[in-house]
Amino acid sequence: MALVSKEWLESWPHYQQFILNRSISNHCPVILIEVFVDWGPKPFRSLDVWQKDSRFKEFVRLSWSSYKVIGGGIFIFKEKLKKLKADLKVWNK
């Protein structure tokens, strides 16, 4: 028994509907729950072992200054972090 329309389900694909048991009322409570949550990009992480490598700070400094990004302050920061994350993955290997 579908309580929401097909159109509604197509518009909100990341939700599921659950029907609870009746208690006092003659109506069944319906709960709509979001089953997919996009938390955005994964956080930037640094490994402690990188700090012990004498080349690490210089690598980060040179990499960071080489990135050319146009935009507002927080956008530039986000894009540079994204580029640094990719470069550190290669450097780590």
Mean pLDDT, rounded to whole units? Answer: 85
Q: If strands are numbered along the chain, what order do they take across the biggest sheet?
A: 1-2
Largest sheet descriptor: 2 strands, antiparallel
Evaluate the radius of gyration: 24 Å
Basic shape: elongated
- Content-based structural category: mainly alpha
How many domains comprise the coordinates?
Answer: 2
User: Can you tell me the residue ranges where pLDDT is under 50 for at least 5 consecutive residues?
Assistant: none
Helical residue percent? Answer: 40-55%
SS elements, strand count: 2
| Helical stretch tally | 4
Secondary-structure blueprint:
Blueprint: H1 6-11, E1 15-19, E2 30-34, H2 48-52, H3 56-66, H4 73-92
Antiparallel strand pairs: 1-2
Can you characterise this structure?
It is elongated and about 70 Å long. The longest helix has 20 residues, at 73-92. The chain is built from 4 helices and 2 strands. With 93 residues, the chain is mainly alpha-helical. A two-stranded antiparallel sheet has the order 1-2. It folds into 2 domains: 1-38, no CATH class; 48-92, no CATH class.
In brief, what are we looking at here?
This protein has two domains: 1-38, no CATH class; 48-92, no CATH class.
What tags apply to this protein structure?
93 residues, mainly alpha, 2 domains, two-stranded antiparallel sheet, 4 helices, 2 strands, 45% helix, elongated
